[in-house]
């Protein structure tokens, strides 16, 4: 898993889904955002 970048909220890494699809894996630092902000961010990513 290769790190692509990081910022105020966490780290983004490159990963593979089902061994063939490249995906971004976004991890969020605990306490970096409110639950409502997290839900809004998840909606953007889907």
UniProtKB/TrEMBL annotation:
PROSITE patterns: PROTEIN_KINASE_ATP, PROTEIN_KINASE_DOM. SUPFAM superfamilies: Protein kinase-like (PK-like). Residues 1-46 form the Protein kinase domain. GO terms for molecular function: ATP binding; protein kinase activity. ATP binds at residue 26. Keywords: ATP-binding, Lipoprotein, Myristate, Nucleotide-binding. InterPro entries: Kinase-like_dom_sf, Non-receptor_tyrosine_kinases, Prot_kinase_dom, Protein_kinase_ATP_BS, Ser-Thr/Tyr_kinase_cat_dom. It comes from Sinocyclocheilus rhinocerous. It holds the Pfam family PK_Tyr_Ser-Thr. This is Protein kinase domain-containing protein.
């Amino acid at each position: 898993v290769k790190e692509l970048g990081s910022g105020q909220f966490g780290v983004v890494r490159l990963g593979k889904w089902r061994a063939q699809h490249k995906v971004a894996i976004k991890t969020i630092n605990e306490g970096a955002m409110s639950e409502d902000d997290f839900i809004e961010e998840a909606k953007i990513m889907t």
